[in-house]
Design brief:
This protein has about 80 residues and is mainly α. About 70% of the residues lie in helices and about 0% in strands. It contains four helices and no strands. Helix 1 packs antiparallel against helix 2. The longest helix has 20 residues. The protein is elongated.
């Protein structure tokens, strides 16, 4: 079974992505969403685009930007 880069990046960096989201959320939850929830949502987005992201030159950067956008969006929808 093929393992996509998205999976590998997520598995190897999940704790860092959660830490990033925790910093961006200032240690709080918003609308019941904590950092782990945000990272899981980003991973779902990445999984839906896994074939396209397979060739992305900076996949970790994609995750960081996606996490930042997800936190910003969560803040804006209050």
């Amino acid at each position: 079974m093929q393992k996509y880069r998205v999976e590998t990046i997520y598995e190897n960096n999940m704790k860092d992505f959660v830490l990033l989201c925790n910093v961006l959320l200032h240690g709080q939850t918003i609308r019941g969403l904590g950092p782990e929830d945000i990272v899981q949502r980003v991973m779902l987005q990445a999984w839906e685009k896994k074939e396209k992201l397979e060739y992305h030159e900076n996949l970790i950067g994609w995750f960081v930007v996606a996490c930042s956008k997800a936190v910003s969006y969560t803040h804006l929808t209050l």
